[in-house]
Design goal:
This protein is of the alpha/beta class and 472 residues long. The protein folds into 2 domains: 253 residues, P-loop containing nucleotide triphosphate hydrolases (Rossmann fold, 3-Layer(aba) Sandwich); 200 residues, 2-Layer Sandwich (Nucleotidyltransferase, domain 5). Helices cover 31% and strands 20% of the residues. It contains 14 helices and 24 strands. Helix 10 crosses helix 11. The relative contact order is 0.10. The C terminus is likely disordered.
């Protein structure tokens, strides 16, 4: 590469628009300007490119979250971004989505299609899931792989001076995948791009639109040069005020009180949750300790304490056995002055041994079976099982403006869904159905609800003479 070529190469690194014009003859459409297909990228596509340019040049908001449905030309613009990044930087690119057909038949095919239009296409080679520079295939490549929460560690090895992570259909990203990806965001030169339909008002993708560390982009289909026919179709099929039109055309997240496609409604709203943002002393009142034992779905064992007006996550762990749970439970009881009868433990399967371990120390806790399926009532409302009843009580407690000691894990409460059966019973979505819908296991939400198994409306007369503090 001679001096002139090197100068141009450095300009391409700083200005993807210059690269796009020289390689494809495309210029950005200005707002209000007539769109010319084959000569322009839309102004929405240009805003995505501009966000990339700012991130690379000024190290500003390298995490970019894009709400889209149809009509933005996302497959094309992502293809341009990937090819530009691979051409201009020694980098590794990871492209993923929850659905293999979308990933390979649409997005990956578009990358290869756009690359074939370039004069230097012979410098690259492609396999079923890899695109790489022939002369530097180990350090300059793009790979696509379906994202599965069962194998989140697959990304742990992805290290390079320049990394780009792209997730399409980002509404369905499991939390386990994000935790694995986070290890790749410690590198100085990284780009993290999420693009997806605004399907759910919970989860990581939804939360990026409330996080100042993310650059958020969203464009109405009504403003797109590609989308008028689609917008009219949705308006005719539903109606302009419908949630479908709100999501698919205006690209807004669904309302909290809207039924999903399984007939479930969000139980606890974001407005129900109020936090204490500083450490508080535990507690002068009577309190309930719930011990939720992990047993499947990579759950966490959790310890939650609640008194009349506050609830706290005291501890959690991913790997447990009956003896370790009993040991930690005893420690927490003594530290926070919890009476034996106010300790409630899941009595399911092997975890019945936890109660037995404590009984050997003459500690008589209250074992319960969480999945009790007997019909129950709460204030005249029939509930399908114990879990439904306790979540109803938890929601009412939160609506009374009682407080949660701040932890990110409380966001699990927003994932709890319910519906009514034909017998007018409240039914909470099961963990199995939540897993199928790609929700995280609601370990902390379940633990919080179970503290309502005991009634503590009356403050007891126990003399708590020692004030203690909690921490994680």
């Amino acid at each position: 590469m001679d001096k002139k070529e090197l100068e141009i190469y450095k300009l391409y690194q700083k200005d993807p628009f210059m690269w796009l014009k020289d390689m494809y003859g495309l210029v950005p459409q200005n707002k209000g300007e007539e769109f010319i297909k084959g000569k322009m990228i839309s102004w929405q596509q240009a805003e995505i490119f501009w966000a990339i340019k700012e991130a690379v040049n000024w190290n500003w908001l390298r995490q970019i979250s894009i709400k889209s449905w149809h009509s933005v030309g996302k497959s094309v613009i992502l293809s341009y971004i990937i090819i530009w990044y691979m051409f201009c930087f020694k980098c590794k690119v990871w492209l993923t989505a929850p659905d293999s057909q979308l990933l390979f038949d649409v997005l990956w095919a578009e990358v290869w299609s756009q690359l074939n239009k370039l004069p230097f296409k012979d410098l690259f080679d492609k396999t079923s899931d890899h695109l790489y520079l022939k002369e530097d295939r180990d350090w300059r490549f793009a790979r696509c792989k379906t994202g599965k929460k069962e194998n989140p560690e697959a990304l742990a090895w992805l290290h390079s001076d320049n990394i780009m992570l792209i997730w399409d259909e980002a509404s369905w990203i499991p939390e386990q995948i994000f935790e694995a990806w986070a290890s790749n965001l410690t590198w100085h030169n990284y780009l993290f791009i999420l693009i997806g339909n605004p399907l759910r008002n919970v989860g990581y993708f939804y939360n990026t639109f409330k996080n100042k560390d993310w650059r958020n982009l969203s464009f109405s289909t009504l403003d797109s040069p590609f989308g008028w026919d689609y917008a009219e179709k949705i308006a005719n099929q539903y109606w302009i005020e419908s949630d479908e039109y709100n999501r698919r055309v205006l690209w807004n997240f669904p309302r909290e009180d809207i039924l999903d496609d399984k007939g479930y409604v969000q139980l606890i709203m974001e407005s129900d949750i109020k936090y204490i943002h500083q450490d508080e002393s535990l507690y002068w009142e009577r309190k309930i300790l719930w011990v939720d034992c992990a047993w499947a779905w990579k759950d966490k064992s959790t310890w939650v304490i609640r008194d009349n007006n506050k609830a706290v996550i005291v501890w959690y762990e991913s790997i447990s056995d009956p003896k370790s749970i009993a040991n930690k439970t005893l420690t927490i009881m003594k530290e926070f002055w919890v009476e034996d009868e106010d300790v409630i433990i899941d009595n399911f399967w092997a975890w019945a041994n936890v109660s037995m371990e404590l009984a050997l120390l003459w500690i008589r806790v209250s074992p319960i079976y969480v999945w009790d399926s007997k019909e129950m009532e709460y204030k005249g409302q029939k509930c399908k099982n114990l879990r439904a009843k306790l979540f109803r009580q938890a929601k009412e407690w939160l609506e009374w403006w009682w407080l949660l000691a701040y932890r990110d894990y409380w966001k699990e409460l927003l994932t709890i869904r319910y519906k009514r059966t034909l017998k007018d019973e409240v039914l909470i979505m099961s963990k199995e159905d939540m897993k199928k819908a790609w929700y995280s296991s609601p370990d902390f939400a379940d633990a919080f609800s179970m503290t309502f198994y005991q009634d503590i409306t009356e403050i007891n007369d126990f003399d708590y003479s020692v004030q203690t503090t909690w921490s994680l």
